Amino acid sequence: MTPEIGQFALALALIIALVQSVLPILGASRGDLVWMRSARTSALAQLVFIGIAFAALMRSFMVSDFTVANVVENSHSLKPMLYKIAGTWGSHEGSLLLWVLILAAFGAGVALLGTNIPDALKARTLSVQAWISTGFLSFLLLTSNPFERVFPPPLDGNDLNPLLQDVGLAMHPPLLYFGYVGFSIVFSFAVAALIEGRVDAAWARWVRPWTLAAWMSLTAGIALGSWWAYYELGWGGWWFWDPVENVSFMPWLLGTALLHSAIVTEKRDAFKSWTILLAILTFSLSLLGTFIVRSGLLTSVHAFAVDPERGLYILGLLGLSIGGSLALYAWRAPSMEGGGLFAPISREGGLLINNLLLVVATGTVLVGTLYPLFTEALADQKISVGPPFFNASFIPIMLPLLAIMAVGPLLSWKRADLKGVFQRLRFVALLSGLAALAVWYLTEGGPALAYLSIAIATWLLLATLREWAARIRLFDVPFAQAVRRARNLPRAAHGMTLAHAGLAVAVFGFVGSSAWKSEKIVFVQSGAVTEIAGFDVRFDGVQRVQGPNYVADRGTLVVTRDGAPVTTLYPERRFYPVAQSTTTESAIRSTLAGDLYASLAEPAAEGAAQSGAWTLRILYEPLVNFIWIGAALLVLGGGLSLSDRRLRVGAPRRATIPKPQATPAE
Amino acid sequence: MTRALAALPILIALIVGGFFLWGLNPSRDPNAIPSVLISQPAPEFDLAPVDHVGVPGLSRADLTDNPAPVVVNVFASWCVPCRAEHAVLTRMVEQGGVRLMGINYKDKPEDARAWLENLGNPYERIGSDLNGRAGIEWGISGVPETFIVSGNGTVLFRYVGPVVGAEAEEKFATALAQARAATGAGT
């Protein structure tokens, strides 16, 4: 019964979405307030019905209802409850249902919280949101029904891919989707503004909290995915430039650009058509990600089951939404320029460079990701584009961005005094140079780029803190007064400091774990000792242990440093009999200075497992935890900005009042 | 802003979309790795032996005049899967009567020698491909790779990755049996 309720609720949601696609936008053009406000009801109803469908699917998973094909394929009665629930979004169908759920949630969010948005803009925005909703709900119902039944029902399920049975990964798709799909509402706002033909500072302020919310989730989602890859896949890397990683990274890059260009639109009434374009492109890249993951277009470890029919349907949806919005853009954008003028050296100028670099970086990733497709189509050559391309092209774009990022917040709007800024930063520059020298002294060689990156990350970190300290006049006035100034500073300012500092912290992690990583792959028998980065790792053999739905070979590694015991690591290889697959559970000793990371590879040779010989992979990754700390700071900074009362979604309407620049009252 | 500039995004999107449409062609398999060598004569190459291993080097001439198909395996001491594959290859040579030729890919001769001393040497000939030139000629995408070459030097089969595990060995054994049957029918 439950699955039928779910299916019925989905069909109802589609009908509601169809109504919402038409009625409010017509009302907006006819000036009919009742029609416009119907969007509120329909947006909420959509959320309720898709929520019911999602709950129905989740229940089918929780009770292991093996009459539902999707449950059979992705669950098993012996699986722990958490992963049964996570199985709801583990498949193509289920994850798409989550996708439309989040789409509806953002629509309902604007309907409920966007009380300060003019009726016409809100009605148009929600209609555009409903267009997307209609497209994906029909896709779900027509090609990927999650509630399909099987008869006769099998006795048990096929299990979820064991690699995906992990707490980090159970949370990864919801967060990622929240980010991906969250940009849909920004897209809808942009299209609505194009239809209205009007973009102003107020528009930018309404859009910014939604952008920020989506951006935060995407940041958290990407970080979580990368963390998962780091400790679960057993390769010891945190980023592989896999096509599917790239398609989640591109909206992040453009979303970051959008976040910054929206500031200029909000405060200076400039960059209007640019902000609109970024809003459209950010969501377009999210859609592109959905398409690539589900169409089998590119080879990837992440891809869902391939089905060309689904691919064509999504491509059709993509054509309509991206093509339609960009055509509208080409038609309407030329007529909406204007706004504040500024000198090249100014806050606007800094943000412009930020935007250009981010867009170029996105373009680089896009070209690298799609290049294999281009060459195959044009030259009939199969190639793969790997980390060397991305490292060689992406890093040189990012380093100047980081360097300029340190200066940007110190520049004033309209016209800035660059000389004065550098004057204020001369100690920071000196310290950055010293930091690079110190690292050079402490390490035994490394690429020159790594030392440069350390210098730039230090520069960014210190300049960001310097700017914050100057705003609260930390050392100029008595401490208590500085604290009071800090309390009076808008939260968005703290948020920016935190996020920028977070990126600098993450860069330390990127550089440390890439440039000074040590790695050993050894063939060991019980008792063998391996030396890595000053640690002695003794292999004490492997035991067989029984888990809930797997059996594992658990290795014991005793780690000592200069004879003193450090820790004991237990890397595992788990075999899941139902899914017939094996996963690696790495063992990691985490410290701020670095991670000692061990994983057990397959028995080194045939019959070697019996003789107790194994292939062991040991890595030392310096500073790697700074990546996750930095990511957490980014999210926290975003959260702090989001909680700023100026941006608060439900904040009272202030559109007509020019934004006070200097001291906001608290 | 000029109209042309505003129209640029849609133009790019349309071009990229065109590629996507092409890419969805159902007969296309993005995972397939094509091999231009299949049914072609083995490429021209001539490799010196690995020092002090005690087997001769390998060149194309060694593959063109054999009574039965031979197996050419590309390996390296730094390659972990090769280690796992080594036992399978050894068993094929000892029990399956396979003639095995090796291309030691981008490997230091002393490392290769230590590796072979440690694990045993099932290879009849080993060419040292220090600079990877022969690897390019053979079009390998990584190590290990294993080829079946007919008696007259035609490449019949290519296996990418280690021939380890029931499925892989089965596939390889089938290909080898076919190659042998074809030779038997020919002579």
Shape of chain B: elongated
Structural class of chain A: alpha+beta
H/E topology pattern of chain A: HHHHHHHHHHHHHHHHHHEEEEEEEEEHEH
In the predicted model, the low-confidence regions of chain A spanning at least 5 consecutive residues are 649-666
Strand line-up across the major sheet of chain B: 5-4-3-6-7
Fourth-level CATH superfamily of chain B: Glutaredoxin
Give the oligomeric state: heterodimer
Ends distance of chain B = 76 Å
> Within the CATH hierarchy, at the fold level, what is the topology of chain B?
Glutaredoxin
Q: Which CATH class of chain B?
A: Alpha Beta
Determine the fraction of residues in helical runs of chain A and give it as a percent range: 55-70%
Give the name of the CATH architecture of chain B: 3-Layer(aba) Sandwich
What does this structure look like?
The complex is a heterodimer of chains A (666) and B (187). With 666 residues, chain A is an alpha+beta fold. Chain A has helices at 2-30, 33-62, 69-74, 81-86, 92-113, 119-143, 167-196, 201-232, 243-268, 272-295, 308-332, 347-379, 387-407, 418-424, 426-442, 448-471, 479-488, 491-515, 608-611, 625-642, and strands at 518-524, 529-532, 535-546, 551-561, 564-569, 572-576, 581-585, 587-590, 594-603, 614-622. In chain A, strands 2, 3, 4, 5, 6 and 7 form a six-stranded antiparallel sheet that branches. In chain A, strands 1-10-9-8 form a four-stranded antiparallel sheet, covered by helices on one side. Chain A is globular. The model of chain A is unreliable at 649-666 (pLDDT under 50). Chain B is of the alpha/beta class. Chain B has one domain (37-185): 3-Layer(aba) Sandwich (Glutaredoxin), CATH 3.40.30.10. Classes of the chains: A alpha+beta (666), B alpha/beta (187). The interface between A and B is large, with 45 and 33 residues. Chain B: Pfam families: Redoxin. Chain B: Keywords: Cytochrome c-type biogenesis, Disulfide bond, Redox-active center.
